[in-house]
Task: structure prediction
Amino acid sequence: IQPILSNLDGTAISANNIIIRNLNIRGGYSGNGGQAGSSTSNYGVDIVENSVYEHGANVSNVTITNNNISECDMGIRIAGIASEYQVEPIANITISNNVIGPGAIGTDSIWLNGISLLGCQAVTISGNNISNLSSGTLANVLTGILASTATWDLQIIQNKIHNIILRATTGTIDGIMQSPSTGFPNRTGNLIANNM
Result:
């Protein structure tokens, strides 16, 4: 889901007031046999801003709830456009009560991140069950919830993150990781509490 330009007159059309709920989403992706080291090409839910923002479109008011997501590199990805992270982030996001990576490890696995945020503001992530993250034998970073560049005003509460398996001899496992970058620091107002 992303902003577009109208086919009729080229007017920018925002992607606002989005609700994704009560779906069973299977990406059909097996991590290239579990060998994909850092592939990020397959998503359960993918909401992005793109260059259309420059024409006046943006993304806001997103709710993703009560979904069952499996067989993807990333269960849920929400990503702003690099040039606008702090000017016009994707805002007012609720990700709640989703089951990400259910079923059998290796068959229904998530191969990289359960939830990934980039350039987002005013986000609540709560009550999600993230499990069966699994890597192949190549080095990888498996993360339950990743709040990356320019994400702030976050509430990450009462999520369960478990059964993460790293098969490579090198790599890392992170339950929750907030990762700022030079030029786009994460701002204040974040609450991370009561996750397990």
Observations:
- The longest strand covers residues 110-118.
- Helices lie at 31-34.
- The two ends are 30 Å apart (CA to CA).
